Amino acid sequence: MATFAVVDLETTGNASSKKDRIIEIGIVVLKDSRVVKEFSSLVYPERDIPPFITSLTGIDDEDVSHAPLFSEIAEEVYGLFKNAYIVAHNIEFDLGFLNAELNACGFSSLNNQIIDTVELARVLIPTSPSFKLGRISEALNFGHDRPHRALSDAQVTGELLIYLLDSLYKLPERTLTHLLKVTSKLKSGFREFIEEALNRVRYRADQEEEYTLWHGIAVRKLPSAHTDGFEISENYEEWLENLYEGEEGFKRSMLDFEQREGQRKMSDLVHQSLTERRHALLEAGAGTGKSLAYLVSALYYSIKNQQRIVVSTHTTSLQNQLLKDEVPKIAEALDQPVKAELFKGRSHYISLVHFSYELENSVHDNYDEALAKSMILVWLTQTTTGDIDEIQLPSNGQQFWHKVSAEQSKKAVQLKSEASYFEWAEKKASQANIIITNHSILCLDLISSEKHLPPYDKIIIDEGHQLESVASRYFGIRLNYKELQRQLSQMGEQFSERYFKEGGTAFMQLLDRHRQAIDKAKDELNQLMRYLYQGIRKSRQAGKSKSDIGRIQYSLEDEKDKRLLETAEEMTNRFLSNISSIKRLMLSMKDQLLPAARSSSSKEPAILLNRLDHSIMICEKIENQLYSYFSPLEANENEAKWIEIEGEGPNHSLYMFSEPVQLNQILRERLFSSKQSVIVTSATLTTNRSFNFIKGSLGITNDNRLIEENIPSPYSFDQNVKLMVPNDFPNVRDNQEEFIYSVSEAIYSMAHITKGRMLVLFTSYDMLKKTYYLLKELINPEEYMIFGQGVSSGSRDRLKKNFQAFDQSILLGTSSFWEGVDIPGDDLSCLVIVRLPFQPPGQPVQSKREQLVRQLGKNPFMEYSLPEAIIRFRQGFGRLIRSSTDRGIVFICDQRIIESSYGKYFLSSIPDIPVTHESTNKLIKQMEDWL
């Protein structure tokens, strides 16, 4: 059995090259899965320990003042690694510091075999939401009493290693055989352990019970599809009464269940809408329990009438809540399985035939491809969906995923007996009572001639205030340089010579011409993007409008952009000419491959035909979107076109957009006029207690059959929330820098009272960035952690998790943080709204919409800008109170909410709560007394 030396270091910083030093080392030596030796020592670093490191580890300068120098323990440390695998969680960090210190002491670098438990965990626990040591140890119930202390971290890393190797030994033989081929490009040297696992698996009698082989790949056996019938009461009222009030209903599945009047009312209104074939607008305040309410009625109607109901959401978090929380509660209450299925587009599901093909061609893999293949191989022994959202592929793994997703198999008639997760998802959806999907798939289904959802006549649209913005994206154009380059590169790679084992001379000539056409297209694309980038950067309009993540936005207009448009159109036509050549060559390649696909026993020609079909479709999509993008804009007043560029970075970071300015007619025709019942619900549908704005936006006609209802929240907002507005902030229009300084000072002062736990919402990315850096100057790193959207690394969910992971932290967010972010309980005590959420001036779609409203003789501010801002304000306000026990402060830095004529509309849109308008110092004193 191998020997493992598991090491963890605490250091003064991240880079030994910048003179950072080790302050603590912990080593655990394992043999036969047992600890045979432990070593731990603080180390005098010969420099000060930064406050942040002290905050993280608890180690300060006094602790290490009498500790040995590394040179005093170097020989003992060096000996512990003799004839052992070196193991660490993120080994490049630890080994880099170790070798730097050892070299400085005259020792040669350690060049043992290594195992990185981050990498190994990614392969063997591919569905883990995080690969940080603390998160993994918590998920696996390892004891980890002293995180960020070297010996404790090394001990837990040792436990993780044993767990991972045990997981490896349980894998099926075929998975291990494939892993043996693809893992040679990984950092960790675990070939010996895969071979040992293969030896063990041959003596396991039960190895095939859980798995089956599809295209030579071991996959988990899929559960049988729904077949059982569902018993249901004839009387809806009686059925609902038993669920809500009976001892065998929700009281059985939820220990703390309390009947809420609003929830019962919501169920009744949904049932009424479905049975009477009426549309409905249902606003349900926080805590109503609206998702459980509409699912209950949708399920009853579906079973009773044998008609599926679609539920569409905007966020994946709500989808997960419906499937993993609400549906199981209903199933337990009814004591029967509920047929509810999540349904996504083809691009989410793996195609095993294409993955098998890529496995056979692994010789030229780079690191990310090898890691992606390894993760997918193990994941396939666990998944019953084939949905890639279950795992986190490496940074460039998405490039690989495009090659193996079910998108590649749209015309899979040529692929005989393809086992398909997408077809399995379709089958489950066809048998389900409730199909849960997202607004993107819904809009794709509305816009496309190809159906993306099973047929339906009744739909519940939750988070309905987001439908218009999602639909705008799908009924418009979104192109960017990087994605176009990726698509062209993939067309070249997928049809390179290494993929062809048959084809002949004529085919190789086509391949050569195809490669040349792609190179020409890339060159033309580069020239077009460089011309647009430089032209926009030089424009006097550049920088006047910015997106919520800081990109410069440039609206295209005929009059001011005539020269730019004419030249861009000419360059685009040259690019599209090359796209057309690529398409013709691929059609010729199809003709060459068809005979081989019909006669060959190999699946290769059929797979390549599928990929050719997919690539041809991409070429046609590029042609359709770019063909008239730069042509005169006057022809379509209902369209906004604009380009976004990164303020800094390469000249090719360029994004092209167009969106319809008004969608009401399109949505009326394709959704509300074609479906029997469309139920739109959200916590924020009304403005000034009226549904008129949302009805106008979505194209809902004001007929007598429309059901409209506002169901208030059961929470005691007047007891749990205080709203505070300072009266001594400088006017942002007079002096933005002074305003930002006042915001930062107020955040810092409030943070001492709330102990961080503060979400700060901005409408301007520039203002967020300036506030972030000012706070970094004001605040000592050991006091508070500060996270800023677009400044700190990570997605919205990652920033939220980091914010919640630290006891004292402050989170700054722009548009996407105004809604859909749940931070319940003590994690959030204070919500700061820096500015009322009007769209920044000059936003392309906003400007065009205001122009159209003005042409109709109406006031664009009152008819459009104000109602839209009120809905966003209500969403932002909703971030603070997420349960009946939450309490906190809403601090609004924008005095317009008190002083302007329209401020009353914002205040009347939220529950009645105490409002205080005082000096900042008095407000902070009141906050301290109240909290």
How does this structure look, described?
The protein is of the alpha/beta class and 931 residues long. The protein has 4 domains: 3-169, Nucleotidyltransferase, domain 5 (2-Layer Sandwich); 230-347 and 425-475 and 663-714, P-loop containing nucleotide triphosphate hydrolases (Rossmann fold); 479-658; 717-930, P-loop containing nucleotide triphosphate hydrolases (Rossmann fold), CATH 3.40.50. A 7-stranded parallel beta sheet has the order 10-11-9-12-18-8-19, sandwiched between helices. Strand 2 and strand 3 (34-42) form a beta hairpin. Helix 19 (439-447) crosses helix 20, helix 21 packs antiparallel against helix 22 (504-538) and helix 23 packs antiparallel against helix 24 (604-626). The two termini are 59 Å apart. Residues 412-416 have low confidence and may be disordered.
Task: Give the secondary structure arrangement, pairings included.
Layout: E1 3-11, E2 22-31, E3 34-42, H1 51-57, H2 61-64, H3 70-80, E4 85-88, H4 91-104, E5 114-116, H5 117-124, H6 133-139, H7 150-169, H8 173-182, H9 191-201, E6 211-214, E7 217-220, H10 236-245, H11 250-253, H12 261-275, E8 280-284, H13 290-305, E9 309-313, H14 316-334, E10 340-342, H15 352-360, H16 367-379, H17 397-404, H18 421-431, E11 434-438, H19 439-447, E12 458-461, H20 467-474, E13 477-480, H21 481-494, H22 504-538, E14 545-546, E15 552-555, H23 562-599, H24 604-626, E16 639-645, E17 654-660, H25 664-672, E18 677-682, H26 692-698, E19 707-711, H27 717-720, E20 721-726, H28 736-754, E21 758-761, H29 765-778, E22 785-788, H30 796-805, E23 809-813, E24 830-833, H31 844-855, H32 860-877, E25 888-892, H33 896-899, H34 903-908, E26 915-918, H35 920-930
Helix pairs in contact: 5-7, 5-16, 8-9, 8-16, 12-13, 13-14, 19-20, 21-22, 21-24, 22-23, 23-24, 25-26, 28-29, 28-35, 31-32
